Amino acid sequence: MSEEEQPSRVLVTGGSGFLGTHIVRKLLEDPAISIAVVSRTPKKQFLVGSDKVSYHSVDIASADEVQALFDKVHPQVVIHTASPKNTDTAAALERTNVEGTKILLQSAKMCADTRGFVYTSSDSAIVPTQEPLTEELAELYTDTHFPNAYARSKALADALVQKANSDELRTAVIRVPVLYGEHDTSFIGQLISSVRKGEHKMQIGQNKKVFEFAYAPKAAEAHVLVARALFNEMTAQGVAGEAFFISDGRPELFFDFARRCYAAAGKPVSPEEVSAIPLAAMQAVASTGEWAYTIFTLGNKKPTLRRDNIDHLDRGCCWSVEKAKQRLGYIPVIDQDTAIQSSMKWALDNL
Fold first, then answer.
1. Fold for domain 3-184+211-253+317-335?
2. Active site residue ranges
């Protein structure tokens, strides 16, 4: 595209989060783009190109606050990554992921400058499979069929964004699996914590389900590819109204991937060192812990070990990324080993 065909004003919700930070960093590679980072607690963290980034403390579930934001920044494309953690309350997930997405879509439609809307969905929104799944065959969870509140909220928002596609506002969905990379305090952070506690030789369940993983800088790149495609009517064909699976393109057993990360951190685990804990036993422990926290803290505190996280290990995820390759020009990370090593080095140095 020529320079005038590319968006120059992009709004990124959740732009201070893990994936959002990588998306902003990718957008900053284009000096013609200015970025509005939206968060409840924005973090000013970009030294290079900082004059191109503005920060806005906004509750996306407030129609008035969101409208005021659009009136101020007039975004040409919205990249909506904001979401509570999967362990948050059902009410918080509904408020942000469902109601917040509706409000953002409404303001985007009313803003004459906004042409594109990109939503970050999740593997949690999709009924899992162990065979390579295409977007056309994927089944979203529904308002009445879902394993947990997070899956429900992400699936409903995913469907809302696809349905909202129109000539006035072109929309698309990017579905990401487990993300890893530099600045990851969640998944990689948990692995580092396991190493430091001496728990990295433990395995929950039989490790028979494959999962997809995505290097965060590549997932960010996919968001920018979609944003640019939606902005222009000619390039939006085959992208607008669509959903795309994004991953490294190499499904792998969950604990095999984790042990590759441990090895990159200097803590390799040989097969004979693995100590497997039955999945059912961990599910029982997690359920008991949640019950105890509910009783003794009156629901004001939540345990670190959550039943939903244990259940997730029994679902798995297996996708085809051919649609993203063909329609977006997406290229998965070429050297996953190097990406893992870089991620673990950052975590060891910073966490």
1. Rossmann fold (3.40.50)
2. 154
